[in-house]
Amino acid sequence: MILTAAQIQEVIPHRFPMLLVDRILELEPMKRAVGIKNVTMNEYFFAGHFPKKPIMPGVLILEAMAQVGGVAMLYPEEYRGKLPVFAGMDRVKFRKPVIPGDQLYMVAEIVKLRSSIGKVWAEASVDDQIVAEAEFLFALTAE
């Protein structure tokens, strides 16, 4: 299943400037999702991070990865309208900088979901090289 940016916004609550997923390429609700973020020089954060050597902030790479996981978790109708908030992150690694012109390819798999707590493992890559990986713990709350 493929989702456009407009369809992604029907599932997760994020909006500009914090919507960091341009398209979902694959979706198995409650199991896994694959998404992309096209990183352009026009991103607001490059003005200050860093003016002479633009690098996408690691926290925003993590946020993009988590949003892909959020789409997989929140796609079923019974979870729509929930707000996924971070409860923790483990095993976070950054392996390579992400720069303008890169396409961030993110795979997120739901490891566990019980009631209102979920765990997601995600990896992000550029040109088949892993640039970041992390395990996220989410709490699903009312919006």
Structural features, described:
The protein has 143 residues and is of the alpha+beta class. The chain has a single domain, classed as Thiol Ester Dehydrase, Chain A. It is 17% helix and 43% strand. It has 2 helices and 6 strands. It has a 6-stranded antiparallel beta sheet with strand order 1-2-4-5-6-3, with helices on one face. The longest helix is centred in the middle third of the chain and has 17 residues. The two termini are 26 Å apart. The model has no long low-confidence stretch (mean pLDDT 96).
Number of strands: 6
Q: Provide the spatial order of strands within the biggest beta sheet.
A: 1-2-4-5-6-3
**Whole-angstrom Rg:** 14 Å
Helix content: 10-25%
**Low-confidence residue ranges:** none
Query: What's the structural domain tally?
Result: 1
H/E element order = HEEHEEEE
Which CATH top level class fits?
Alpha Beta
Overall pLDDT level:
96
Q: Could you tell me the strand content as a percent range?
A: 35-45%
Structural class by SSE content? alpha+beta
Largest sheet: 6 strands, antiparallel
CATH architecture type: Roll
Number of helices: 2
Q: Which outline best applies?
A: globular
Q: How far apart, in Å, are the first and last alpha carbons? A: 26 Å
Subcellular location: Cytoplasm
Keywords: Cytoplasm, Lipid A biosynthesis, Lipid biosynthesis, Lipid metabolism, Lyase
EC number: 4.2.1.59
Protein name: 3-hydroxyacyl-[acyl-carrier-protein] dehydratase FabZ
